Amino acid sequence: MKKKTVYIWMGTFVALSVALFAVIYYFHLQNDAIKIASNVKGGPPTLSNYIQGDMSNPLDKPMDVTKIGQYVYVTDTNHKQVQVFDPSGTPIFKFGKQGTGQGEFQFPYGIAGDKDGNVYVADLYNDKISIFTEKGKFIKYFNFANKADTPKSPGGLRIYSNKLYVTDIQGNRVMIFDLKGKKLLELTTATAKDDTLNAPNAVTIDSDNNIYVSDTGNQRIVCYDKTGKFTRIINGSIGGTGDSKFVNPRGIGVEPNGTLLMVDNMTHYVYGFDKNGKQVFQFGGLGSDKGQFYLPNGLYVDSNGQILITDTVNERVDLYY
Asked: What's the pLDDT tens digit per position in 113-156?
């Protein structure tokens, strides 16, 4: 009887262990399914960690961010420099200082990287785009083939397929160049000739090379096809025809699933839109707690779907998945 009792207890223990493992495995699968659904179906991303810099040199008004290789490059605007981190937030190096000479900045703003790892930095006040090696050594200024195409105040920068996309904030235009400086396309209007861009701040494209511009002064996103033909307005209203719900839209980017993300600077929210321009989520809100923002500005989405957002007053970069 004693042996039989032992066997019964052993069998019960094994059965309970298997059941517990099954429950744990089920919830693990459910959690993975939720993460996948969030990425595929347009759900809001999940906060991973912050980048703030070290105690001796924290970020001060980070304006834009990009990822080149494995490193995160941030325009540390009030310090007149670029700070570089690994994805965990560990400072690697920094470059730049205040001035008007080579390798110097007055207001470093947009930042982007090419396929060779070179770093392009737009200086809003020096009216130049500087090119550096991935280690921060100044190479040259971006050479515009036609002087008339030189931006009055280069703001947002992105590089896709060896093309440089630039927003000229004071010039009220967006220009696309090859990397030798030849202008390929210029965008100045939305729905009609009398509907002009007003202080466009950021630019991005999707997998079909459709172009999206945060038309900041007009409180909207303007969408174009790859040839520069206007397609629609996104402003938070149905069909983009009503009053805008945005207040100072800034950084934009497209997730791998096609969701368009936009930083709305003065509402302190990030919005997500599907391919038809319909809002599918929002996250953020004013504050300094986890998941909140205080005047967010720049946004970058890497090839793996990681989202980086500069949170200017909170002096950090927020990383989301």
From this structure: 999 999 999 999 999 999 999 999 999 999 999 999 999 999 99
Q: How many CA atoms lie within 13 A of 60 on its CB side?
A: 9
- Tokens 């971006």 -> residue: 142
Quote the CA–CA distance of 250 and 164 in Å, as a whole number.
Answer: 18
Rounded CA-CA distance 272/283 in Å is: 9
- 11, 79, 91, 257 from 23: Cα distances, Å: 18, 52, 41, 30
| pTM: predicted TM-score of the whole model, two decimal places | 0.87
Three-class DSSP labels, the chain: CHHHHHHHHHHHHHHHHHHHHHHHHHHHHHHHHHHHHHHHHCCCCCEEEEECEECCEECCCEEEEEEECCEEEEEEHHHCEEEEECCCCCEEEEECEECCCCCEECCEEEEEECCCCCEEEEECCCCEEEEECCCCCEEEECCCCCHHHCCCCEEEEEEECCEEEEEECCCCEEEEEECCCCEEEEECECCCCCCECCCEEEEEECCCCCEEEEEHHHCEEEEECCCCCEEEEECCCHHHCCCCCCCCEEEEEECCCCCEEEEECCCCEEEEECCCCCEEEEEECECCCCCCECCEEEEEECCCCCEEEEECCCCEEEEEC
Tokens encoding 51? 């980048």
pLDDT in tens, 14-41: 444 434 433 333 333 334 333 434 444 5
Sign of CA dihedral 258, 259, 264, 268: negative
Asked if 240 contacts 233 with a C-beta cutoff of 8 angstroms, the reply is: yes
Q: Which two tokens stand for residue 46?
A: 């999940």
Asked whether 296 and 284 are in contact (CB, 8 A), the reply is yes
Q: Find tokens 């038809």 and name the residue.
A: 276
Residue 254 contacts residue 212 (beta carbons within 8 Å): yes
Find the Cα–Cα–Cα–Cα dihedral 81, 87, 90, 94, rounded to 10°. -20
* 179: its two tokens: 């990397």
